[in-house]
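pinned: reference chain
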Amino acid sequence: MNLGFLRPLYDEFGDYVSVYLDTDRAHENALQAIELRWRAARQRLAGAGASQATLNAAAAVTGGPSGARGYAVFARHGVLAFADRPPPPARHGLSPAWAARVTAARPGTG
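pinned: its C-alpha cells
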C-alpha cells in the first residue's frame, strides 16, 4: 500500500492540529450544524494551545465537499498539511464522530 500521500504529516516533527469533523449535509440545518461543530472544535483546539494561524488554515477546508459525510484536516504553523474525506462508515446509519486535539510528534516516539 502506497502511503506517500501522508508524507507531509511525517516529514516534520512538532505540533499538529488534527480535526475530524462530521460534515454530513443530509439534514435541513446541516450547514448551521457544521459551523457549530467547527466552532466548538476550534475553541477546544485554541484552549489546547493551537495558534490562530493554524486554526485559520484548518478552517479553510472544514466545510468539506458537499458530498462528504466527514472530513479529516491536519495543519501546523499556519499551513494546511493534509485534508481528505475519511472512508464512509462501515455500517449504514453511523455518522462519523468528530474530535479535535493538538498532537506532538517527537523523534523516536513512533
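why pinned: DSSP finds three helices and four strands in the chain. The radius of gyration is 14 Å.
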